[in-house]
Amino acid sequence: MEEVTTIGLDLAKLVFQAHGANGTGGVLFRKTLRRHRVLAFFATHPPCLVAMESCGGAHYWAREIGKLGHEVRLIAPAFVKPFVKRQKNDVADAEAIYEAAQRPTMRFVAVKSEATQASATIFRTRDLLMRQRTQTINALRGHLAEYGLIAAQGVGQVAKLVANLDDADSCLPEAARSMLKVLSDMIGVLDTQIGQLDMEISRRAKTDDIPRRLMTIPGIGPITATALAALAPPSEVFRKGRDFAAWLGLTPLQKSTGGKQRLGATSKMGERTLRRLLIIGASAVVCQATRRGAPQGSWLARILARKPRMLVITALANKMARTVWALLAKNEIYRAPVLAR
Questions:
Q1: Mean pLDDT by 10 residues, the chain (341 residues)
Q2: Residue 109: phi, psi to the nearest 5?
Q3: Residue 313 CB coordination number (10 Å)
Q4: What angle, 0 to 180 degrees and rounded to 10, lies between the N-to-C axes of helices 222-231 and 174-207?
Q5: Sign (positive/negative) of CA torsion 97, 273, 282, 262?
Q6: pTM value?
């Protein structure tokens, strides 16, 4: 019997599809596996290369199948899609995963450990609570505006809106007042939960080595530093800092052809959470430089003098991303450049 060298595994909730092939690409089996039989199948199979799409649950299956002696590689779904032939189904997807894994220039996703995924959970939870708080505040604003009660924008102005609920002289009907009280109580609960998560993030930033080093970069605080440590792949995955910035989506789209270079808007590919945090940090640095003035002759001062503010923020976020990669790759701390006199 010919030896299977590579298996393309299409993941699902209950029914998985496996595509096995030999070293020359010959198909040896196409097998449907129920969820509870996946690990038993790979436990009895000789060690080989197992390729999967990087989707929900992929890192769990990569760790478990890797423990059985197989080499596991995860591929971004966007890189698998071009290999799907004709109609899309589980069999075609498994074969496409196998085909993509055979490409010598294919880029693979690093498998995350349980600890890394656990660290990332705090940021996903915080983002969810922040969105829920924003939705609730907007709902409260909208309902009170119907009765002519408004306040300035911003989370800090919510207290003025809530004060209208406690004011007996306001024009709010009692039926509306009791319902809007539910929204205000929900905002208070979300504020408390977000504050607890922020405290936990600050604690991790002070005790972990990587966040402490990253916080030496201007514009990177505890939240961004711990997010980078939890969500970013290992620095060895990227050849240089520009590759890391491109992975974050902080480089321009290219539409070049015929030897002519055409650069478009920022690509916004990659990890959205990290990109947003770096943009926020860069915006804070630019705002401070605008108010107090950047050091004369510095990179920031030169680019602020000739470029629009939003372009400067994006460029600075790109620069921060490349600095982050350098610190992680070289295991150093940030040292501000010395200006020539």
A1: 89 96 93 96 96 95 97 96 92 96 94 91 93 96 92 90 85 89 96 95 91 94 94 92 94 87 84 93 95 87 93 95 95 79 56
A2: -90, 130
A3: 22
A4: 70
A5: positive
A6: 0.86
Looking at residue 75, its pLDDT comes to: 97
Neighbouring-strand partners of residue 8: 19, 51
Q: What's the pLDDT at 158?
A: 92
Determine the pLDDT at residue 84.
95
Give residue for tokens 């996946």. Answer: 38
> What crossing angle do the helices spanning 114-145 and 158-166 adopt, rounded to 10°?
50
Cα angle for residues 299, 302, 308 (degrees, 5° grid) = 110
Structure tokens at 303: 């680019």
DSSP 337: P
Taking alpha carbons only, the member of 67, 152, 85, 73 closest to residue 111 is 73
Where are the strands (E) in the chain, listed by range?
A: 6-10, 15-21, 27-34, 49-53, 71-75, 252-254, 263-266
The dihedral region occupied by 110, where left means phi > 0, alpha psi between -120 and 50, and beta the remainder, is beta
Beta bridge mates, 19? 8, 30
**How far, in Å, CA of 34 to CA of 37, rounded?**
5
**Which residue, chain included where needed, has tokens 């809007």?**
180
Question: Running DSSP on this structure, what letter comes out for residue 83?
Answer: G
* Residue keyed to tokens 């074969």: 95
19 close to 35: Cβ distance less than 8 angstroms: no
Q: Residue 223: which of 318, 322, 126, 320 has the closest Cα?
A: 126
